[in-house]
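Supplementary Methods. Inverse-folding protocol.

Structures were first reduced to a discrete structure-token string of length 70. This string, shown here, constituted the complete conditioning input.
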């Protein structure tokens, strides 16, 4: 539950966006090819979740879908 609590916080929101950017960079710069494009597309999910203030792990672990408003 501590992970979900962190991911729902503003710091977790920033961490999701940074993780998404890292996935895109790794996919395009390191992996390359079709697999790299797939990794980059997967990187859009945490960016979208962070930008929309949505914690996708919340409902899976019994918490709210939306992050905190702070």
């Amino acid at each position: 539950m501590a992970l979900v609590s962190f991911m729902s916080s503003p710091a977790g929101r920033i961490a999701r966006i940074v993780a998404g950017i890292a996935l895109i960079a790794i996919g395009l710069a390191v992996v390359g090819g079709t697999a790299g494009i797939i990794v980059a597309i997967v990187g859009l999910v945490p960016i979208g979740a962070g930008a929309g203030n949505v914690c996708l792990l919340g409902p899976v672990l019994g918490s709210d879908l939306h992050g905190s408003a702070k």
